[in-house]
Specification:
Monomer. Its EC number is 2.5.1.19. Belongs to the EPSP synthase family. By secondary structure, this protein is an alpha/beta fold. It folds into 2 domains: 215 residues, UDP-n-acetylglucosamine1-carboxyvinyl-transferase, Chain (Alpha-beta prism), CATH 3.65.10.10; 208 residues, Alpha-beta prism (UDP-n-acetylglucosamine1-carboxyvinyl-transferase, Chain), CATH 3.65.10.10. The protein is 31% helix and 27% strand. Strands 3, 4, 5, 14 and 15 form a 5-stranded mixed sheet that branches. Helix 3 links the parallel strand 6 and strand 7. Helix 1 runs parallel beside helix 3 and helix 4 packs parallel to helix 6. The mean pLDDT is 98. It binds shikimate-3-phosphate and phosphoenolpyruvate (PEP). The site of shikimate-3-phosphate has 11 residues, from helix 6.
């Protein structure tokens, strides 16, 4: 689908961004393998999370979904049933990688596959540790690419030093560890998002954390519960940057998730000089949340690297846009992981922003951006990557002239109401 976008004078008003994608996936997955019923409020109805529901239905789980309210009739950790069809995860890396951990607990064989983007993404990062735990996995490129065939075996706890800070890898291993003999440990090079750890605890599982090592003892069961999903900070990020760079703007983003493993974007934007304030913060919830108010700001460049990267990995495309409007240079490094997301996000961000006149260069593990560029409307594309599509739509709001965005439908993967909310704020 092609979208024609024109500049916006200001953004004002309040919105509630949709539910957190990482938490929505996990609520359905953990509810499915729990004993008893799980209710979810604030579920993200984006395509990725609908893929998760569809896969668990194929495994025999009864799931009712009414907009953002979901009820899951849990089957227990050994109660999933074989699917006669392939499990199709669409565009969702989180679905396939976490499901592999769960399927390592089954006695039957399942086949997992996905769209053209999933077909390119590396799965060795999970097949390798899961094989060590005892799962039987086969697939293209020695188990690195879909379709993947997976079956549980005699699983035994391992201690896995993960070469990358990845919540998908950590979660897949911990989930496989739930039924393994002994204890399963994962050590990361730096801390990735901890939604799995927090939610397993809410489902009654004991999770141990010592520094960068997380572990679960095998033989634990999950008990169905209620999950309240806060707004997705990765979706809010597009409006945080839009509010900062579009003149005369003041926006309130309500009930945004503020889990410290996800708030790197707030640290960076404040460091760059953005005027952000917090209201109604609830730190007590298993997943903290609060309202964020952002005003038009004069930004300056920043260096973004190291342990901060996993705390804002999905926000780098929109941070790159903010950097094009900042005074001075922004350097993003240690972000090699961007190369294996829905697209190679270093290449797609740099290519498309260059078409709009940005001064931006790719490096092997990041990018270098010189700010204060006057962006011009251009013909750009999302390459089927939701976050690239949204970043370019916000770029179009400040560009001179019209921008044509092709493959804009990809945005529905994580933010189906994105254009409605953008319109609402720009008309207010
Ligand atoms: O666990 C999750 O929910 C996610 C983890 C991150 O991926 P990695 O685990 O590959 O870093 C992130 O990029 C993705 O959008 C969601
Ligand atoms: C990388 C992302 O998701 P996933 O890995 O689940 O496809 C994302 O949403 O930016």
């Amino acid at each position: 689908m092609e979208k024609h976008l024109t500049p916006i004078k200001s953004l004002t008003g309040a919105i509630k961004v949709p539910g957190d994608k990482s938490i929505s996936h996990r609520a359905v997955m953990f509810g499915s393998i729990a004993d008893g019923k799980t209710t979810i409020n604030g579920f993200l109805t984006g395509e990725d999370c609908l893929s998760t529901i569809s896969c668990f239905r194929k495994l025999g789980v009864n799931i009712q979904q009414d907009n953002d309210k979901v009820t899951v009739e849990g089957k227990g950790i050994t109660g999933l049933q074989p699917s006669s069809e392939e499990l199709y995860v669409g565009n969702s890396g989180t679905t396939i990688r976490l499901m592999m951990g769960i399927l390592a607990n089954t006695t039957f064989r399942s086949v997992l596959t996905g769209d053209e983007s999933i077909a390119k993404r590396p799965m060795n990062r999970v097949t390798k540790p899961l094989k060590q735990i005892g799962a039987l996995i086969e697939g293209n490129d020695s188990g690195n690419k879909v379709p993947l065939h997976i079956q549980g075996g005699r699983t035994k706890g391992i201690h896995y030093p993960s070469p990358i800070a990845s919540a998908q890898v950590k979660s897949a291993i911990l989930l496989a560890g739930l039924k393994a003999e002994g204890t399963t440990y994962v050590t990361e090079p730096s801390k990735s998002r901890d939604h799995t750890e927090r939610m397993l605890e809410a489902f009654g599982v004991e999770v141990d954390e010592k520094g960068l090592t997380v572990s679960v003892a095998g033989g634990q069961e999950l008990k169905g519960t209620h999950v309240e999903v806060p707004g997705d900070i990765s979706s809010a990020a597009f409006f945080l940057v839009a509010g900062a760079i579009i003149p005369n703007s003041v926006i309130t983003l309500k009930k945004v998730g503020l889990n410290p493993t996800r708030t790197g974007i707030l640290d960076v934007l404040r460091d760059m000089g953005a005027d952000i304030t917090y209201q109604n913060v609830n730190d007590e919830a298993s997943e903290p949340y609060g309202d964020l108010i952002i005003k038009t700001s004069s930004l300056k460049g920043a260096v973004i690297e190291g342990d901060l990267i996993p705390r804002l990995i999905d926000e780098i495309p929109i941070i790159a846009l903010a950097a094009t409007q900042a005074e001075g240079e922004t350097i993003i490094k240690d972000a090699h992981e961007l190369r294996v997301k829905e697209t190679d996000r270093i290449a797609t961000v740099v290519n498309e922003l260059k078409k709009m006149g940005a001064d931006i260069e790719a490096t092997e593990d990041g990018m270098i951006i010189n700010g204060k560029s006057l962006l011009k409307g251009a013909s750009v594309q999302s390459y089927g990557d939701h976050r690239i599509g949204m970043m370019l739509s916000i770029a179009a709001c400040i560009a001179e002239g019209e921008t044509t965005l092709s493959r804009s439908e990809a945005i529905a993967v994580s933010y189906p109401s994105f254009f409605d909310q953008l319109n609402k704020l720009s008309q207010a």
